[in-house]
Design a protein that fits this description.
The complex is a heterodimer of chains A (about 375) and B (about 250).
Chain A: H1 7-26, H2 29-49, E1 56-61, H3 69-76, E2 80-85, H4 87-95, E3 101-107, E4 115-120, H5 126-147, H6 169-199, H7 202-207, H8 213-243, H9 251-278, H10 282-299, H11 314-318, H12 321-332, H13 343-363
Parallel strand pairs in A: 1-2, 1-3
Antiparallel strand pairs in A: 3-4
Helix pairs in contact in A: 1-8, 2-6, 2-8, 6-8, 6-9, 6-10, 6-12, 8-9, 9-12, 9-13, 12-13
Chain B: E1 3-14, E2 17-28, E3 32-36, H1 43-50, E4 58-63, E5 66-67, H2 72-78, E6 79-82, H3 94-104, H4 111-117, H5 133-143, E7 151-155, H6 163-178, E8 182-187, H7 190-196, E9 199-204, E10 207-212, H8 214-223, H9 237-245
Parallel strand pairs in B: 3-8, 3-9, 6-7, 7-8
Antiparallel strand pairs in B: 1-2, 1-4, 4-5, 9-10
Classes of the chains: A alpha/beta (about 375), B alpha/beta (about 250).
Amino acid sequence: MKKHYSKPHQIRAFFVMMKYFFLAQTRNAGTFAFGFLFPVVFISIFGLIGNSTQTLTIGLPSDTNLNNPIIKTIKQEKFVATQIAPESQLETAMKQGKLSGIVSTTQTSDNISHYQVTIITSVANPTEASGVTALINGIVDETNLHDAGVINPPITIAQKQLSGREIRYIDFALPGQIGFALLSTAIFGTVFGLIYLKKALVLKRMFATPTRAITILLAQGGSRLIMAVLQTLIILFLGIVAFKFYLPQGWITFVELLILSVIALIAFLGFGYFMAGLVNDENAAGPLVNLVTLPQFLLSGTFFPTNELPNWLQPLANILPLSFFNEAVRKITTEGGNIEQTIPYMLGLILWGAVMYFLAAKTFKWE
Amino acid sequence: MSDIITVKNLVKKYKDFVAVDDISFEVKQGEIFGILGPNGAGKTTTLEIMETLKQLTSGKVIIDGFDVTKHSREVKRRIGVQLQASAFYPELSLIELLDMFAAMYDVRINPLEMLKEVELEDKAKNYVKQLSGGQQQRFSIASTLINKPNVIFLDEPTTGLDPQARIHLWEMVKKINKSGVTIVMTTHYMDEAEQLCNRLAIMDHGKILKIGTPKLFIKDLLDSGFKKEIKPEPANLEDVFLNLTGRQLREG
């Protein structure tokens, strides 16, 4: 028998363990649910929702003159949807936030080209209100000038439209979903996985072998890393093939995404190990895991951009680890930038990871 | 016969609680040594310290020439361990588990042969949780032999098993011992201790009360004037049970 437990032994043990840990994960329902099912379902939903363009919905009371030239112009506007109904119904709808405004015309004299345009908007929705107001004002001013016979007004407007891809929600949502899948796998998988193994004395039995504890834990982490890379690939493929998710630099972007995902996963695994070391029971783990993951899911720009959050919340939201990942990914996907531009964000993420691994090393109890 | 294990003044303290209170004993090569005692006596803790799974507070434990604290990896290489509860990866089959542990012990084995030895070859592709209690224990014991150890440690090997499975497991333990493996086991079953163990340490509250052979214990007890109230019973309930249900193993 060999005298020393040498590197070759640890290496063989590492690869064999990693193979079996990975296999075990593929047979585990939780891995499938969190790592594949949820993200795939979310992406499908977002991919299908995503194609609505912004519209203003303007209500036209059914008991007013709908043949008025102003009203006709409104109806022809590309990004305006109109709804014709009795005024009381329209007012109710607007209070419920379903209309951007209500527009009607009333004659002010016997001259049919003299009328008053009434715009009703809601204080509750200032952006859309100003959209409606600006639109109507524009149309009215143009009509007024035309009717007054002014053919060459002193100030003219020239409008240019830049061509570009239509930004769809899926382009925003997909990176968020990848981040979601990575964080879920890393944390839920590691925490609940390790707690179960601790409880079922599986880890203990393994520590009775001459394979070092660090080799065992690295093999655990390694197998989760491989699983998560697989999940990322599948989510990306689904996004690209089914929903035409856009990669600005094609294969290069794809590879860059994978690199970012691997770094993120290693950092998130640190969180997982740290938390698995703190608790010994699934019941205690649940709240802790939720405390760490839920705020990130909601605030890191997974489902909506962080700049939609209140100003006081944004600085906090922006330093969350998942935020760093989402920002970095969007830099190379929606913003079409280079991987160098992601460096500040990735450094933030790596710093989080380093802190977590340090804390995990200090607190992890094997049993 | 030389000593394969030496335990000297072993102490294990948790904050203020003393789980193992200055115990000493030797285990001779080739014997089956039992540690008998009620729950909470400190048996499992003692075993886990010998298995290198727990740090001792003070004292010395030498197994097969190596100190468990200073050369724990050398000790791990030479021992086999069977933990109290089923301790195997839930989503791996028996044959996959044996293969994985073989890599962890850095040995080459024939997993199917090993399963044949314990009559589990037709369960090779099953998960541990799909086995009956007796089958799980047999697998567990089989897995202690992967690295062809000189010493194996069994923690309450028949707790929770039905009578047929217990008897079958005892046969297995005796067979392993006959092949030259020293066995250290804990139990709180008197009949098990009597059936299997060459020598026993009786433990309670962290201390060893007595070490010796079962015969010696009984002799000492009788010498001290003890008289057992004898009610002649040609048969007891266990005999009835075994007679009715047979000595055949009941496996799913």
